[in-house]
Design a protein that fits this description.
With 473 residues, the protein is mainly beta. The protein is built from 7 helices and 35 strands. It binds cobalt (II) ion (CO).
């Protein structure tokens, strides 16, 4: 382990609660609430290392901001995967890229009935009145937002049989419904879109589309009238998945000749309006989408292929390639999808590497918008893990960055100021790994100038997380 960004992939098993943090700078008085972040924090089980960044066991971290002070809590999620690992000292469930039956023990039963773990390490959201953590499994795990104590796997009051769900469900602003996309594997596999009303625990089917070899999709887009799936040519053969005895990631096949297709589904009746094909690309994160006349505008972070998944194996991240490149290249692209026919085309919105993108969601989701915030890669230090925060103006096609040597910021969460007039009026919150001091801090940037407002020193090093939310309180 070196003293650089690799510290972000090292286990942190200290759990703390109610720690008051020292704040440098002045937090805005209106900023009241809790930033909850999710990510992997344990990378070994017993003697065995997990293989992929996505496999690490989930830990929640919270920063509660009140009257200019910050309190910190962190806790492992007591998921079935975590519980089994704690009790048996070995992995009991197949994670994204690590499989117990190959790496630890062979058991015929698991070969034929793969048990995918519920290790909800990816994101958090409010689902009806529950605070939940998600991974790519259909059931999230509920937690207490104050103590971060695990309440349990969420049971839905319906009989939808689903095998995955994205960790990026959307909120329908007019109704408050949660909308998400799942895969169902079987004799006939399907993409399933469901919605869940705000006051209910019953998921309702919006659309089900049969597919022979489903694509791996980490997120999707909504517009006023449509649900938009970008179907990359990174596909899984359901029968092989069941029989291969290999973890999910190793069953994914890149078939660029298929191209990427936008599947446009009408919310009102679940009908497939059309499939719109373009040359192959891969993406984890949609940024935003909206309708513009007869065209859908779909903004996302595109990779030329799916090699980024290979690049996120822990052995690769810890021992970078000889040429020093850690991050495969990507682009913030705007796809134009003409609903009445014609070719799909795209333009590049920024000359910046970008990931973990966020917008002013309350105001701009499904609407024309101007600003994207994300983690970035400094032009001075391309041979590094993502080492800066960027704010991109998609109208002016300009970028502003926050960079500090030896620092590795996580996903920037935008929090709008009350009664804001401008889209970027508010603050941006990011948990930053400070590799110089083997610790982390909460960084607060002014949304408009992207300059530092305050920082609060965390009591220990926080491994790199994926996603978080600010819950105003
Ligand atoms: Co994500």
């Amino acid at each position: 382990m070196t003293d650089g960004y690799q510290q972000g992939f090292a286990t942190q098993d200290q759990e703390l609660s109610g720690v008051s943090l020292q704040v440098n700078g002045l937090l805005p008085s209106w900023l009241q609430g809790t930033l909850v972040r999710n990510g992997p924090a344990k990378f070994e089980v017993g003697e065995h290392g997990l293989r992929h960044w996505f496999d690490g066991l989930a830990m929640l971290h919270s920063f509660t901001i009140e009257a200019g002070c910050v309190q910190y809590v962190n806790k492992f999620i007591d998921s079935p995967s975590y519980r089994y690992a704690q009790e048996h000292g070995r992995l009991g469930y197949s994670e994204f890229a690590t499989d117990p039956c190959r790496s630890i023990f062979k058991r015929v039963a698991t070969l034929f009935r793969p048990k995918f773990g519920i290790n909800t390490s990816v994101s958090v959201s409010k689902l009806a009145d529950q605070f939940v953590a998600w991974t790519e499994m259909p059931h999230p795990i509920e937690f207490d937002p104050q103590s971060l104590r695990t309440i349990g796997v969420v049971d839905f009051a319906d009989d939808l049989k689903l095998h995955t769900a994205t960790p990026h469900p959307h909120l329908e602003p007019t109704t408050g419904d949660t909308i998400n996309v799942s895969l169902r594997f079987g004799a006939t596999s399907a993409y399933v879109v469901y919605k869940m009303p705000a006051n209910s625990s019953r998921r309702q089917l919006v659309a089900s589309m049969p597919v022979r070899e489903p694509a791996y999709m980490h997120s999707f887009a909504l517009t006023d009238a449509y649900v938009v799936l970008a179907e990359y040519p990174l596909v899984v053969n359901p029968r092989r998945l069941l029989l291969s005895g290999k973890p999910f990631a190793e069953n994914l096949q890149w078939q660029p000749e298929r191209g990427t297709q936008f599947l446009v589904i009408r919310k009102a009746d679940g009908a497939l309006v059309g499939r719109y094909r373009c040359p192959a690309f891969f993406c984890f994160h949609h940024v935003n989408a909206f309708e513009h006349g007869d065209e859908l505008i779909v903004d996302l972070i595109a990779y030329p292929d799916a090699n980024v998944i290979q690049a996120l194996y822990l052995d690769v991240l810890r021992e970078p390639r000889a040429d020093g490149v850690v991050h495969p290249p990507n682009e913030l692209r705007r796809y134009h999808v003409p609903l009445s026919g014609g070719a799909v085309w795209h333009e590049t919105l920024a000359d910046e590497w970008l990931e973990l993108p966020r917008v002013n969601y309350e105001r701009c989701h499904m609407r024309p918008y101007r600003f994207v915030y994300g983690t970035g890669l400094s032009k001075q230090r391309r041979d590094d893990f993502s080492n800066q925060l960027v704010k991109i103006d998609v109208e002016q096609r300009t970028a502003t960055a926050w960079y500090e040597p030896g620092c590795y910021p996580g996903e920037p969460v935008f929090v709008p100021a009350p009664h804001a007039v401008e889209e970027d009026e508010g603050v941006v919150l990011s948990v930053v790994l400070d590799a110089r001091h083997n610790t982390s801090f909460l960084l607060v940037l002014d949304g408009r100038t992207f300059s530092e407002v305050a920082r609060a020193a965390a009591p220990h090093r926080i491994p790199f997380g994926f996603h978080g939310e600010f819950f105003a309180g």
